[in-house]
Amino acid sequence: MKKIVGIIAAAALAASAFAEVSVGSWNRQDYVPLAYNGTDLVHGGMVNWDMWRGANPGVNQGRIGIGFNANADDVAGLSADLHGNNGQFELGDNAYIWVKPFNFMKISMGKIENNWKRGNLCYGFFDHTIRIGGGRIGEDLTFQKKDANFSVLLTPVEGLEIDYSVSTTSGGTYFYNSVWNQARFGVAYAIDGVGTIKAQIRGKDNATNKDGDKVAWGVANVAFDLTSVENLFLTVGAYAPTTFAALGSDNKQDGDSTVKVALGVNYKLDALTLHAFADTRLLVADVESANPLKDANKFGFAFGAGVDFAITDAYTLIADVRYNDAWYNTVGNDKKAKDCLAFYAGIAHQISNATLDIGFEGSTNSVGCYVDPSKADAFTFAIPLQVTVGF
């Protein structure tokens, strides 16, 4: 055993002479000592993106995340992470290697969470408490990521980036999947002193129209991030399907069948940081189905606003209010949903490399982390505690 350990140590020492190796960790756990589900007072544990629902505990232990990165002179490397979910370790979002055959080209292969130019606006609910109702809105608000197994990033001139990413783990082995069905083609250009303009098109799984004919379709996505104003970040984006006649294998439309326009903003004023977002969806249907989205020209929306106020370097007050209308909540569901008003008020305590959050959250129409299925119209609330630790 000592010999094996010695060999590993020697290999690590030799590798360090040629490559920079780093290990990091990100960890989160939520516990709700008291909540009301519309009928009873209950409690439970989770991570804030997985919600416990009464008799279905789901993920009731937190996330332990460990990440490994290696970089050899910025021409080759690897990235991998492990996630401990519900007490069991498994491969995380990334396990890939990369190489730069030229200084303007990066090729990556493996399991890749490709966050290239991802259009996020995360605050309030998303970062500090259980993500109920509109609290789940944050990632991919204006520009969507692409999970992939092969990716090529080109940077031919300053400010210009071109990304091609494709998944090989779904859709079969047909060449068509590489050029469309499982592929993403993206381009971005950073305008010095102004911001970044981005565009991409993502191929979708083969679908059929109302007559049963095969339909090749995708989603076009454009966005712009404004960074020219001091202390202001503004992102705006739009999504649109390439056809309004596509049905999935279950003969239903999905959320990508909608035209979507969204914007988000952060603005910092000394100790005060303001946040706001708006997200709209319009279905222009050309099909008939049993899906609740069958009605054409339905319009749904969600919006929210939040504020962070830093009392000291260690304590920050957090407030967030969000509203989703009924049709917005229906998109992607198998039955019609109701609207939802959700709010959170709490305090974040920064302790070295950890954050402790405690607060109060509530929501209308049983869109919460604790739901009694027989009480669809209930007001639910929770008092969550969240700990996040990073190294």
β-strand percent reads over 45%
- How far from one another are the termini? 29 Å
**Helix and strand run:** HEEEEEEHEEHEEEEEEEEEEHEEE
Shape estimate? globular
Provide the structure class. mainly beta
| Low-pLDDT residue spans | 1-15, 52-59
Helix content: under 10%
Calculate the mean pLDDT score and round it.
84
Biggest beta sheet attributes:
18 strands, antiparallel, barrel
Total of helices = 4
Q: What is the tally of beta strands?
A: 21
| Rg | 23 Å
Short summary:
The protein is mainly beta. It contains four helices and 21 strands.
Keywords summarizing the entry:
391 residues; 21 strands; mainly beta; 52% strand; two-stranded antiparallel sheet; 4 helices; 18-stranded antiparallel β-barrel; single chain; 8% helix
Indicate the topology:
Blueprint: H1 2-16, E1 20-36, E2 41-46, E3 63-72, E4 76-85, E5 88-102, E6 105-114, H2 125-128, E7 146-154, E8 160-166, H3 175-181, E9 183-191, E10 195-203, E11 207-208, E12 214-215, E13 218-226, E14 232-241, E15 258-269, E16 272-283, E17 298-310, E18 315-324, H4 326-330, E19 340-351, E20 354-363, E21 380-390
Antiparallel strand pairs: 1-2, 1-3, 1-21, 3-4, 4-5, 5-6, 6-7, 7-8, 8-9, 9-10, 10-13, 11-12, 13-14, 14-15, 15-16, 16-17, 17-18, 18-19, 19-20, 20-21
